[in-house]
Every structure is written in structure tokens, then in C-alpha cells.
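dumping this here before i forget
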Amino acid sequence: MSSNIHHAAADGYASGADTYVKGRPDYPPAVSDWLRDTLGLGPGKTVLDLGAGTGKFTPRLVDTGATVIAVEPVPAMLAKLSAALPQVRALAGTATAIPLPDASVDAVVCAQAFHWFATPEALDEILRVLKPGGKLGLVWNLRDASVPWVARLDAIVNEAEGDTPRYYTGAWRRVFPHAGLTPLQETQFSQEHTGTPEDVLFNRVRSTSFIAALPPQARQGIDDAIRALIASEPALRGRERIGVPYRTAAFVAQKAA
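structure:
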């Protein structure tokens, strides 16, 4: 299965599952309403959390009352999800080999994940497991780079990305439109990731797949660059707790009935 996932995900997430749990922000409360009102989730529905990772988004799905199935290819991350959410059926699988029957779920949600497998083959497989009229939801949490110091932080991260697929490049959009799916509809939310600099800056950056996969000396260089950013930025310097502004982009498309 590892041959079917990008090397940055296979290497970085295998070694960085603990840091991912510590450093990743939660999702804004308004996402819960979006899941119910736009995706139609609730009791009696079944939703697939595809590329579920450690289960950072999964509790939002559980809270709707729907039956939740999680599929994730990286064993270390799937183990974290299973330990934290034993009520969720957790399966090893990929976006092009989903271990579920045809027309078996009412919705598929990819949170912080679709850019990894944005191919026509993955969309065909998602359409296979969706019931007629079922919905595909795509969700990303993104630092708000309109804030100058956040843009400087993003520049530190982006310099190390190599060939890793990223949301911000927009490359994932090339697979749309796709036969059998309605056009994507987008909703935006905003929030702030608040905590210690260790978690919301260092651990968040360390949890980035391609950074977690770097050799120790290169990872230390990233840490040093973040320390220099903190020292130069009044909004960060000397603070025990900081807030990082985020925006959340949520997209929905529907399978033809």
C-alpha cells in the first residue's frame, strides 16, 4: 500500500504522528453546521472519512450522529485514530482502493487530505462508494497568509516542500469538473489557533509531512528560522501564548442521483 501514497506522506507521517496530534489546529465550530446542513449528515447516515490521518477531523463527523468509517493508509496514523476513537470503524486503505462496497455511504469527507490523491481515478473510486445523490466534502485548514508574519512563516515552510502536493498551489483543482459530480461549491470560515509557541508554531510546522521527513540537521534549520521569526516579530516575541489566524475552506459536490 505504501507504494500508492506520496513518499512525503509515507515517510513524514509515519514518524510524525505524535507531533501531528499536538500541533494541528482544530476546526471552527461552524464546520459542524456545514456538515449537517450542506452535507446532510445526521443519524441514519453513513460517512467515510477518507485520508483520516490521526482522526483530527473525525470527532466532528461523530458529533453529527452519523455512522463514521475512517480509511487511512499510514499505519502509525491509523493506530492513533483507533486508540482515540474506538467507536469508529477504522480501515487501512487508499483513495484508489477503498475497502467498502459500491453505493455504501451517504457522504465522503476528505479533511486536510484531498490534495494527496487528487486524480480522476480517486474520484471514480469515491463515486463508486457514494450512494446516488451522495455528497463529497473537501475541507482544509489554512494559515491566513494575508497577515505579514504568517506569510513569513509560510515562506519558511514552503521552501522545503519539494514535490509534495499542497492545497495552496491549486493543482488539486485540475481534476474538476469530473463526470458524475456537480460543480464544487465553496464556503469559507475563520478561526484562531491559540496556544503555546511550541505547539501552534513549532509542532504545527514539524507536523508538516515533508518537514517531518527531513534529516535532523535540516529540521533543526527550520526550528532556527522560526525562532528568528519570533525574535523579530512583536506579535510573537516574549509571549507565552499566541494566536495564529486561520481560514477554513470547505467544498461540496454531489453525485448524480
